[in-house]
Amino acid sequence: MEDVMITGVGQTPVAEHWDIGLRDLAFAAIQDAIHDAGGIKPQAIYIGNMLAPNLSNQAHLGALFADFSGLTGIEAVTVEAADASGGAALRQGYLAVKSGLVQTALVLGVEKMTDKIGSSVQAALATTGDADYEAVQGVTPTVQAAMTMQRYIHEHDMPIDGFAGFALTAHKNGTGNPDAMYRSGLQLEAYSSAEKTSDPMNIYDVAPRADGAAALILTRSDLLPSNPHEMQVRIAGSSSAVDTLALHDRKDLLYFEAVQLAAGKAMKQEGVLLEDIDLFEYHDSFSIYAALALESVGFAIRGKGWKLAAEGEISIDGRIPCATMGGLKARGFPGGATGVYQAVEAVIQLRGNAGVNQVKDASCALLLSMGGPGSTGVCHILRTRRV
Amino acid sequence: MEDVMITGVGQTPVAEHWDIGLRDLAFAAIQDAIHDAGGIKPQAIYIGNMLAPNLSNQAHLGALFADFSGLTGIEAVTVEAADASGGAALRQGYLAVKSGLVQTALVLGVEKMTDKIGSSVQAALATTGDADYEAVQGVTPTVQAAMTMQRYIHEHDMPIDGFAGFALTAHKNGTGNPDAMYRSGLQLEAYSSAEKTSDPMNIYDVAPRADGAAALILTRSDLLPSNPHEMQVRIAGSSSAVDTLALHDRKDLLYFEAVQLAAGKAMKQEGVLLEDIDLFEYHDSFSIYAALALESVGFAIRGKGWKLAAEGEISIDGRIPCATMGGLKARGFPGGATGVYQAVEAVIQLRGNAGVNQVKDASCALLLSMGGPGSTGVCHILRTRRV
Question: Which of A249, A354, B121, B229 has the smallest set of CB atoms within 10 Å of its CB?
Answer without folding.
Answer: A249
